[in-house]
Structures are given as C-alpha cells and as structure tokens.
Amino acid sequence: MRSRPYGRLMTAVLCAVSLFGVTALSACSSSTASAGGGGDKITLGFSAWPGWFPWQVAEEQGLFKKNNVNIELKYFDSYTDSINALSTGAIDGNSQTLNDTLAAVSGGAKETIILVNDNSTGNDKIIARDGINSIADLKGKKVAVEQGLVDHYLLLLALREANMTEKDVQLVPMETGAAAAAFKGGQVDAVGAFQPFADTALSRQGSKALATSAEFPGAIPDHLALKADLVKSKPQLAQALVNTWFDTIKWIKDNKDKATEIMAKRGGSTVEAYKAFDSGTTIFTLQQNLDAFTPGTTPEHLNHQAQSVVDFMMSTGLTQKAPSLDGLFDDTFVKAVPKS
C-alpha cells in the first residue's frame, strides 16, 4: 500500500540530485527516457491503492495497446519504492499523492502532474482503541504512523483541528502495515492507516475511526506524475497515457463486475471487501480533472491545495525547503482528451 518514509525518500532524491550530480541522474534515467506512443517501452509504476488499480484493468484489457502505448506496468509492493524510483528516474511515471510529490520536488526531483486519478474520501483513517472517543483523547497516547506518509499528514490535520500538535501525542514511527498490526495486537493506542490496513486495525475489538479523509475534502488528491523532461520531449506519450486512463474508466463503468474482479485480485482482497472501499476513494471524471487543474482558491483546486500542503509541511517540519510549484501542474492533456 501507499507507504513511504519521508527520510528514505529524501535520501534517495538527494543522492540522485545532489551527491552524484546531473550526470548520474541522467544516466539513471537514460534507459527509459526515449519513449513514445508505439515507440520504445516506458515504465509506469503504481501500488496498492484503490484509485490506482484501474491501471491493472488497462493492461489486462489491452487499452494501453489501443492507444499505441508500449508500456511496462510495474507494480510495487512498497509505495516507498515507487516514489523513490520516480524520484531517481528509474521509472518514467508513477501514481502518487500530492504531498508525496511535493516532498520529492522539494528534494530536487523534476516531476509534472498531468492527471488526477482520485481523491481519498474516507479510505485514510485515524483509528483508536476502545475508550478513546475523540482526537482530544489522544493526548499523551501512543499513536503509530509512518512518518512523512499521507496518514501522518492526516493525523497532523486532525490534531490541528483539535487545537493540538504532534507534541501532544507519543508518536510511534512505523511502516503502515506494521503499524496496523501493532495496533491490532494492542501495542499502541491509535494508528494512522489507509485501506486495506485500516480494516486490519478496525478488526481490533472496540476500535473506531476518530477521523478520516472524508472530513478533509480535497486534502489527499492522488495523481499521475511523469518525469518533467519526458512530458516536454514526448507530449504525445503523455496524451496517450491520459487517454488510456479515461478509456479505462469508461470500460470499468461498462463492465463493473469484471473490473472489480481484476482490481480486487491485484489488491489481494476479495471482491466483497474491495466493493467496501468504493465510497472511500472517488475516481475523478474528466470534468473533475478540468476543475481541479483550473486555478482557484478552494481545496478542490490543485494549486490551492498544493500551497496549503507546502505551508503545512513547512510549519510542521516535514520539509525544510518549500518546493517550487512552477510547472508542476500541466492541464494540456486532460484538456485534449477526445470527447466521447
């Protein structure tokens, strides 16, 4: 699942960009940079999040081929590894959260967001044991969370809303799957986790979700990010990927049962369990993409949300350097999607 310790990501990025320099970074990316629709193969990464499983459907139903994309779809068991792979140029694109992309960019990675896959609308959760009934009740309690990960961000948002800070709890840094297991085993009082690890945590008797991403609309957008130089040199490829995504969403709508079966299998869950994730992840339509890319002053607009995330990351010490937002968002491709 989405699992990326901030420290490990920054180390990988800084090693690629600062320590070894531009030459090493270019060498790292040279094997994948020469890609195009129907040309050399490119590598697209994704990991276990409901909003990214449609890529598996695209591959199995030949929708990449339909759009003349020669692609290696690379599934990462560890979201951490997928983030690092894009940051260092080992892959050409990846599906990832906005705050994780901003963390990578602040470390020197050159990435461009060309598509919004989804928004988390409940599948990220802060879960507590029996007897803890509010965020305020977490004061002094042990809370397991993966530092720098999206649910660390969610925890900080929830604490701020309760007029608290991270200093008011005993933060227990732990990989998300291990954190959910530790909570289930009674080793900590609360946990920040996303699906399906959230369900693992909720299997502890008496446990409950104190806060979810549904309470912070627009705070956790997930998207497709490509290497910035690839977007510039191969715009036809970027367009083909975006077209494939919307072809896939249409195919899923028209073949719901088969699509759910494919996505559940990729996620290692049953069809029944996967269906329960639906409401917690909102797949964006083309119009929602167009609206999100349009500059605005509400959380529904990517530029506004990005600035909010940057301000928050700086104020909480998640990053020491504010990333530049110049060129981060490119709406060219969602604007050019053929209207069906």
Automatic annotation (TrEMBL):
Subcellular localization is given as:
Periplasm
User: Which NCBIfam families does this chain map to?
Assistant: SsuA_fam
Q: Which GO terms describe its cellular component?
A: membrane; periplasmic space
Q: Which organism is it from?
A: Actinocrispum wychmicini
Going by the UniProt record, its keywords in alphabetical order are:
Signal
Tell me the InterPro entries matching this sequence.
ABC_SsuA_sub-bd
Please state the span of the N-terminal signal peptide per the UniProt entry.
Answer: 1-35
GO terms for MF: ATPase-coupled transmembrane transporter activity
Name of the molecule in the record: NitT/TauT family transport system substrate-binding protein
